[in-house]
From TrEMBL:
Name assigned to this protein: Cap-specific mRNA (nucleoside-2'-O-)-methyltransferase 1
UniProt xrefs under Pfam families: FtsJ (PF01728)
Organism field: Phytophthora megakarya
Superkingdom per UniProt: Eukaryota
Catalysed reactions, semicolon-separated: a 5'-end (N(7)-methyl 5'-triphosphoguanosine)-ribonucleoside in mRNA + S-adenosyl-L-methionine = a 5'-end (N(7)-methyl 5'-triphosphoguanosine)-(2'-O-methyl-ribonucleoside) in mRNA + S-adenosyl-L-homocysteine + H(+)
Length: 315
């Protein structure tokens, strides 16, 4: 029997109550979110070294590290590429192009260029905040510079709250690829999301990825893009709200969709709470014993072999 994803199993076991999702201990969804916020706020009581140590010791997948790449973001794309075969299924004689949005310092792009650098024609484009804090500007290896074109938009800031910068980047890409690139990736967020209480990419986060296929110039989604750009153009950075979604009656009338979203959010929030509790319990545990029974060590080499990453190069 094929192994099933834990989220699928959890969703099947969740209640079918369409009025209100109830989880463990008959807790309502709103109460679940309150508990999650409470656990995350406890991170603010930890200094950076306490937090990092506790996070590492309570998540076995931290041992995977970043392999040969700039950061762990590359490993996210390694996993997705293994599932969807964006580059691994390509023949070396095939060309490959991509755009990386809000991608600094460049983990996604570094992986894509490393994987396809021996193809006949490879080219990437990237836009991110220029000279951003936390070393979030591009830091790709110099040997990849000929394959990657950096753009900071019309005003040179890389700020994608500017419609002019969005259009400038679009025009740069279309000048070389009028019909669009083969793959677009985006992993951006506000700098505040890098704080401990808003951490990403770990079990204590609600991070998820949306995969879309077949999107090209002239696709019906261009109407949605126009709406988003008009909304952005009329807003300031601090007041960008998608108010038009509040009156989206078809979505509100779709009971199956709303029920699915409630279940998914409930399952993920429950997992987050458990992960946050493990971090907080470990940080305050003087004996530093692991607080999650049943966790087993993993062998990174098995994952690297499965993902066809080869051996880690000597640093």
């Amino acid at each position: 029997m094929e192994e099933r994803h834990l989220l699928d199993v959890a969703l099947e076991n969740a209640t079918d109550d369409s009025e209100q999702l109830k989880v463990e201990n008959s807790m309502s969804y709103s109460a679940l979110l309150e508990e999650l916020e409470l656990e995350k706020h406890k991170f603010e009581q930890l200094n950076n070294s306490q937090f990092l140590s506790a996070r590492t010791e309570t998540n076995v997948f931290e041992t995977l590290g970043r392999h040969r790449f700039l950061n762990r973001s590359a490993m996210k794309l390694v996993t997705l590429d293994h599932i969807f075969q964006w580059t691994q299924g390509l023949d070396r004689r095939q060309s490959f192009s991509f755009a990386d949005i809000c991608g600094g310092p460049g983990g996604f792009s570094e992986y894509l260029l490393w994987r396809t650098q021996e193809h006949d024609q490879v080219h990437g484009f990237g836009i991110t905040l220029k000279e951003a804090a936390n070393n979030c500007d591009w830091r790709l290896p110099s040997k990849l510079s000929d394959l990657f074109e950096i753009c900071y938009g019309e005003d040179g800031t890389g700020n994608l709250y500017s419609v002019a910068n969005i259009h400038h980047f679009r025009d740069v890409v279309r000048k070389r690829y009028p019909n669009g690139v083969d793959l677009v990736v985006a992993d951006g967020g506000l700098l505040d999301a890098r704080s401990q209480s808003n951490q990403t990419s770990r079990p204590a986060s609600s991070e998820r990825y949306i995969i879309a296929r077949g999107l090209r110039v002239g696709h019906p989604t261009s109407k949605l893009v126009d709406i988003l750009e008009n909304t952005l153009d009329q807003s300031t950075n601090d007041a960008f709200q998608l108010t038009f979604l509040k009156n989206c009656s078809p979505m509100h009338e779709d009971g199956d969709f709303l029920q699915y979203m409630a279940k998914v959010n409930g399952v993920i929030a429950t997992s987050q709470i458990q992960a946050c509790q493990r971090i907080n319990q470990y940080a305050t545990n003087k004996n530093k014993r692991k607080t999650c029974e049943g966790d087993t060590d993993i062998d990174p080499e098995q994952y690297f072999q499965c993902w066809k990453l080869g051996r880690i190069p000597h640093q």
